[in-house]
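Fold sample X.
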Amino acid sequence: MRAVLIIAALMLLAGCAGNPETVDPQPRVVRVEVPVPVPCRTKDVAVPSWAAAGLRKSDSLEVKVRALLAERRQRMGYEGELLAANQACR
């Protein structure tokens, strides 16, 4: 019984030695490049006062169309500013 324990202990110690091909003799430094999120630092895009916001039901059709066309141009400019701010954060 004692011989079995000694043989088992020797086998366990032999397993701890490991394979010399897989064990590095010296530690080495490995550089891993990982993207790190960075907060975006752009100015807030101000929301314009829309041209059609002040329209009344009693306004003439011409006034309404002019206001809507002006608001369309405002929205296009506003969207351009938003896209530029978004592109700056990439």
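Fold sample Y, listed below.
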Amino acid sequence: MKNFGAFHTQRLDIRPVSIEDAPFILELMNTPKWIQFIGDRNVRTVKEAEAYITAKAFPQLQKYGYTNNVIIRKADHIKLGTCGLYHREGKDDPDIGFAFLPAHRGKGYAFEAANKLMHVGKYNYGLTELSAYTLEENRASRTLLERLGFILIGTGSLPNNDEELLHYHRLLDF
């Protein structure tokens, strides 16, 4: 399987997360919205962020060729957030997810990155469909998923988490 590598949009550089991103990942994972809508992962130090990246992102990248990506603004090389494809145990199709620092929300970066990621998933990896999961109260995530063409199909949960989530689905038919 070829390496996922980096890809680009008009405004963004998008590349797989690396150990060097640990301080950024630590900051992102401890924002109020991450904790509220994604969940507290008890990552409180750079070393714990490094361990999280090593345990969660690297095995998936090695096995499937895709993982979580850091989103970097081309104009100033600022890390804005993350967007990735996740292959979860017990799920038939991968799901897409995204998170951005508060200062970079509402500027179209998540849409731009996720849209590109869906195309890369289809054309580089032959994916034909994606899921997405979010809490009902996460209005911003729901709005973005619907704008990306995802359809709400019901509720579900993710492995090792009993919390009821809205389950969205999208065929990659572009």
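Sample Y note: The beta strands are 7-8, 12-16, 68-73, 79-86, 95-100, 129-134, 151-156, 165-171.
Also: Residues 7-171 form a domain with the Aminopeptidase fold (CATH 3.40.630.30).
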